[in-house]
Design goal:
115 residues; mainly alpha
Length: 115
């Protein structure tokens, strides 16, 4: 399991670096694509941090509960950021305020249920 988590950390870090370093030349004049790129960077970066924490602190060996709590703590914001990134591209940057705000209460409710 540790090797898979380390591989996930490396792959996600490389994908995030590619978005940060390689893509700016192609999206410099397109504000919508640039915003989506940064939303993807944030989502993938958080996902890499999540796998790194699981790898370093060995949550899988402690039991299922700790790993699930760590997953929910990070996966809800990650998936929300990635979904907003795609939605931003599809709607050409015309995201509603509710689409930005819904992930926050969803995450808070999930954390409340876990606690």
């Amino acid at each position: 399991m540790g090797e898979m988590q380390f591989t996930a950390v490396m792959l996600l870090s490389l994908m995030t670096l590619a978005l940060v370093m390689l893509l700016p030349r192609k999206v410099a004049e397109d504000a919508v694509a640039n915003r989506s790129r940064w939303l993807m960077v944030a989502g993938l970066g958080l996902l890499a941090v999540q796998f790194l924490l699981q790898h370093v602190w060995h949550f899988r060996s402690m039991g299922v509960t700790q790993a699930v709590m760590m997953n929910l703590l990070f996966f809800i914001p990650c998936s929300s950021l990635l979904a907003l990134s795609v939605l931003n591209l599809q709607r050409q940057g015309q995201l509603r305020r509710s689409e930005w705000l819904i992930p926050i209460p969803a995450w808070l409710i999930a954390m409340g249920i876990i606690a």
